[in-house]
Design a protein that fits this description.
By secondary structure, the protein is an alpha+beta fold. It has helices spanning 2-36, 167-171, and strands at residues 61-62, 71-78, 85-91, 96-101, 106-112, 114-119, 124-127, 132-135, 141-146, 151-157, 164-165. It folds into 2 domains: 1-44; 61-171, Jelly Rolls (Sandwich). Helix content is 23%, strand content 34%. The protein has a 6-stranded antiparallel sheet with strand order 1-2-3-10-5-8, with no helix packed on it. The protein has a 5-stranded antiparallel sheet with strand order 7-6-9-4-11. The chain is globular.
Length: 172
């Protein structure tokens, strides 16, 4: 009986040694791969962009027609008609963006002001400066710039940018 216990432990030890040897080999492979690149970064694709909503070089234009005057947008990167794009949306105090939805998810960060978003079903997100929200594609929502100051939100779209009015918004 003592011998079987030793064999069982020896079997586990061999398995453990095999796993450790495999991990060590993988680590050596990773070191070799990074050594082959000599620490060089990959080729840069695109351009470096650093900006803020107050940048005088930004070209602001009107928001899509479904939104009221007092709403402006500027493209930071990408091509909104073709694919992923990052934009700033600027809204005057009190501006309401009526119910709408997008084919793309929206990655939203409030840069300035106070902004609220209301989703179908009544759920609401009140955003303070720096707050992030992810609005899934197809999720109807409305929004409002709250308080005395203009709002600026950063929106990252994963797909071409669109804004489709909800039936409730069209009826108003």
């Amino acid at each position: 009986m003592v011998r079987q216990g030793i064999r069982a432990r020896t079997g586990v030890s061999r398995l453990a040694l095999g796993v450790l040897a495999g991990l060590a080999g993988a680590c050596v492979g990773l070191q070799s791969a990074s050594a082959d690149n000599h620490g060089a970064p990959p080729q840069v694709v695109g351009e470096l962009i650093t900006t803020s909503p107050d940048d005088k070089n930004l070209k602001w234009g009107p928001c899509p027609d479904i939104f009221p005057s007092g709403c402006e947008v500027t493209v930071l990167s990408g091509d909104p008609a073709k694919g992923a794009a990052d934009v700033y949306l600027r809204a005057a105090p009190g501006t309401e963006l009526k119910g709408h939805w997008h084919h793309s998810p929206e990655h939203v960060v409030l840069v300035k002001g106070k902004f609220s978003v209301t989703f179908d079903g009544g759920r609401q997100a009140s955003l303070d400066q720096g707050a992030y929200t992810l609005i899934p594609a197809g999720m109807p929502h409305s929004a409002k710039c709250e308080g005395p100051d203009a709002c600026v939100i950063f929106i990252g779209f994963e797909k071409p940018v669109d804004a489709i009015a909800t039936k409730a918004a069209e009826a108003k």
